[in-house]
Amino acid sequence: MLALLHDYAWAPFAEFGFLRRALIGCLALSLAAPPLGVFLVLRRMSLTADVLAHGILPGIAAGFLVAGLSVTAMSIGGLVAGLAVGIGAGALSRATGGREDAALAALYLVALALGVTLISTRAGSVELSHLLFGSVLGVDDPALLMMAGVASLTLLVLAFAWRPLVLECFDPGFAAAAGARGGAWHMLFLALVVLNVLAAFQALGTLMAVGLMMLPAVAARHWGRSVGGMTYAAVGIALVSAWAGLLFSYHLDLPSGPAIVLVAGASWVLSVLAGPVDGLLPRLLRRSHLTG
Predict the structure, then answer these.
(1) Closest of 95, 93, 75, 71 to residue 83, by C-alpha
(2) What does the alpha-carbon distance between residue 53 and residue 156 come to, in Å, rounded to a whole number?
(3) If 256 and its partner were Cys, which of 63, 135, 214, 249 is the partner (CB 3.0–4.6 Å)?
């Protein structure tokens, strides 16, 4: 039994270096991105990460046109574009009094159209597939270093920004009265989301970069009642999803990025059905107990 478990669960990572790099990169993303996803859920901004994932596309396309499939060039371009969309939408909404989601939608649509236009001018089918869907098994050392660096920076910033972010989620009026500078923390938070989406791009592509950020976070609300409990649950779900997704990809010959996101999606479905906090089955059992 132990030998069979080793053959299926660990032997592929021990044998192939590219699988080990992919696992390490995805584990780094799984530590940093889900806590941001939890705050996005609490702020009712769940679709913001997806908007920003598409918003980085023109910068990535510009980097590709300049230097080809260079991680450095595409990362710099994506960072500039993502910050322009994320922070620009926040600044516009606060300056004009309009809704931030409306500004995000407008900037996101313009950025997406511009990115697709730029990519279509030179990219072939292989490059287009890489940009849109990623290549987690092709993660090289520069991409791995970027993932680890972004994860480390995110966790360090969250250690200092945790209390202000929680306060702004639950009582923004009190945070403003206490001089917590909610606008500055919000902009910093959006910058972290952009960085993590950009780090995930190499592994999961622009279309699925938010999978490890949002699906575990949405599932975690069924496993924890506090912000800390939800965060621990989201990170645990993301770690298991990354590991299991890569194994399914290897053994069943599936594309790696979608396999990871599908496992995270299955975890969400399981959480909705059986999670102790507002899961469907626990609620039905409590209801039948009360009516019985």
Answers:
(1) 75
(2) 22
(3) 249
Please state, in angstroms and rounded to a whole number, the distance separating the CA atoms of residues 202 and 69. 10
Are 238 and 263 contacting, i.e. CB atoms less than 8 angstroms apart? no
CATH label, 23-291, candidates 3.40.50.1820, 1.10.3470.10, 1.10.3720.10, 3.40.50.300: 1.10.3470.10
Convert 81-110 to b/e letters by CB count within 10 Å (16 or more is b).
Answer: bbbbbbbbbbebbeeeeeebbebbeebbee
- Closest by Cα among 46, 58, 63, 61 to 85: 58
Tens digit of pLDDT for each residue in 220-276? 999 998 999 999 999 999 999 999 999 998 889 888 888 888 999 999 999 999 999
pLDDT digits (tens, 9 = 90+) for 60-78: 888 878 877 777 788 888 8
How far from the centroid of its chain's Cα atoms is residue 6's Cα?
29
